[in-house]
Write a structure and sequence with these properties.
The protein contains eight helices and eleven strands. By secondary structure, the chain is an alpha/beta fold. The model has no long low-confidence stretch (mean pLDDT 83).
Length: 252
C-alpha cells in the first residue's frame, strides 16, 4: 500500500468550500433546524440529476479517483464495488474511463431514484452498473470494495449500515471527503454550500470511529486530510478536518 500513498494524496489538490453551523445531538434535531429553499435532495434536485446522467465522464482528478488506485492492489482480474450514494456521478464513471478491471459496480441510492437511474443506464453497461435501494439484492461475500464517496456524514444510522455491509466481507472500506474531529463524540451540524439551503451533516469523532471499525475487523491503513476552506460558527477549525480514511480487513 505504501507505494500508492503519494499518488493518492496528489489526487486531492482541489479546494472544498463548506460552511457549517449549529450543534445537535441527533440527525432529527438537526433536520428540524434545516432549510431547503433551493430544492436540495427533493424532486426538483432529482429531476436535475436525471437530466445529467452519464457513464462516460472524463478521467479527472477528484475523490472518485481513489478507487481505481486501490483496486490495483487487489489480486483479481476484476472486482466488485458498492458505491454508497454515488448518484449520477458514481464511481463507475471513473472506473470505466480508467479501464480498471471492473466486474460489477453497485450504487446504493434512495428508492425513489434507483429504478429511474437503472432505466437510463446504456445497454452496454447494464451488466456492470446496477443501481439498488437495498443491499439485500447483493450476493453474500460478493464485494471487494465498499466506497463512501463523501456520503457517510449524511447517514443518520451510519454504524448500523456499516455493520450490515461488513457481512459482505470486503477487503477495503473507503470513506472519502468526510469531516472527522478530535471531539470525543459525534456531533450533527448544518451544512450550507448549496445556495441558502442547510442540511444535516455529521462531524464524526475520529478516535471513536477508528475504534468502531477495529472492533468490526478493519484497521485504518491510510488517513489523510483533504485541502479545503471550511468554517463552523462554534467549533474551532483546529478541531476538525475533511479527510479520507481507508480501512482494510484484518488478516487473521
Amino acid at each position: 500500500m505504501e507505494r500508492y500513498i503519494k499518488k493518492i494524496k496528489l489526487l486531492f489538490n482541489k479546494k472544498n468550500n463548506s460552511i457549517y453551523s449549529g450543534l445537535y445531538n441527533t440527525w432529527s434535531e438537526a433536520e428540524k433546524n434545516s432549510s431547503k429553499k433551493q430544492g436540495y435532495a427533493n424532486k426538483k434536485y432529482d429531476n436535475r440529476s436525471l437530466k445529467k446522467f452519464t457513464v462516460n465522464e472524463k478521467y479527472t482528478i477528484g475523490r472518485n479517483m481513489i478507487v481505481p488506485i486501490i483496486s490495483a492492489t487487489l489480486k483479481t482480474d476484476n472486482f466488485t464495488i458498492l458505491d454508497i450514494g454515488g448518484g449520477v456521478n458514481s464511481v463507475f464513471s471513473h472506473l470505466s474511463s480508467s479501464k480498471a478491471p471492473l466486474g460489477l459496480c453497485y450504487v446504493l441510492e434512495r428508492d425513489e431514484v434507483a429504478s429511474k437511474f437503472n432505466n437510463l443506464v446504456p445497454s452496454q453497461h447494464s451488466n456492470v452498473l446496477k443501481y439498488i435501494s437495498d443491499v439485500k439484492s447483493i450476493s453474500h461475500n460478493a464485494l471487494d470494495i465498499i466506497y463512501f464517496g463523501s456520503s457517510v456524514q449524511y447517514i443518520a444510522n451510519y454504524k448500523t449500515l456499516i455493520q450490515s455491509l461488513i457481512e459482505f466481507n470486503p477487503k477495503y472500506i473507503i470513506f472519502s471527503e468526510s469531516i472527522f474531529t478530535e471531539i470525543p463524540n459525534d456531533i450533527w451540524v448544518l451544512q450550507q454550500n448549496m445556495g441558502s439551503d442547510t442540511f444535516p451533516n455529521l462531524f464524526i469523532s475520529e478516535k471513536k470511529f477508528i475504534y468502531f471499525m477495529k472492533k468490526n475487523g478493519y484497521t485504518c491503513d491510510l488517513n489523510f486530510c483533504i485541502p479545503g476552506d471550511h468554517s463552523h460558527d462554534q467549533i474551532d477549525r483546529k478541531q476538525y478536518e475533511c479527510k479520507t480514511l481507508i480501512f482494510v480487513k484484518k488478516i487473521l
